[in-house]
Design brief:
Strand content: 35-45%
Number of strands: 3
Order of helices and strands: HEHEE
Largest sheet: 3 strands, parallel
Strand order of the largest sheet: 1-2-3
Radius of gyration: 13 Å
Number of domains: 1
Amino acid sequence: MSLSDDDAEYIKGKKVLLVDDVFGAGGTTNALKSLCEKAQAQIVGHALIAVEKGSILPEGLIYLFELPLAE
């Protein structure tokens, strides 16, 4: 995951909404947050389609449904 210099400059100082498909262990979330911090963007929300049941969720996360554990 990366941002070009132009992309980083574009979001610098702006408010951003993180949007992802599924939250599991938080790797993508942590990478997105890191990129935004480096680009000096303000994260104002984080939305997902689904979270894996039993995941430790960050505060303020918005999601549509929880995925059941695989058997």
